[in-house]
Amino acid sequence: MGARIFVCVTCDRYSAGSQGPSRGALFATCVESTARGLPVTIRRVECLNGCPHPCNAALRDLGKSSFRFSKLDEEDAADLVDIAVRYGASSDGAISTGRLARKVISTYVRQKP
Length: 113
Prior knowledge:
- This protein is α+β, with helices and mostly antiparallel strands.
- It has two helices and five strands.
- It has one domain (about 5-110): Glutaredoxin (3-Layer(aba) Sandwich), CATH 3.40.30.10.
- It is globular and about 45 Å long.
């Protein structure tokens, strides 16, 4: 099964005077374009609870470790998709987040039984 990337499309809803699509929606469009043809599904969600540090995305799947990233921008889309492909191929989600390690805001490491 391919990986799912959850992207918050309401980020940056608290910025003053914002018009048009949110930063999160623009980022989701960029990630969708980058992931085209790869075993990755992009899910647009209303919130990932990272409002103080907008542009959030998460990788999570049943039985695997999970990751939430913040402060993402268009330059991070390719790295996020690469991480998601490796995450989808892993049995437990224990992967390196590479260049995006500094943007990981939370993790849940699944303990093996």
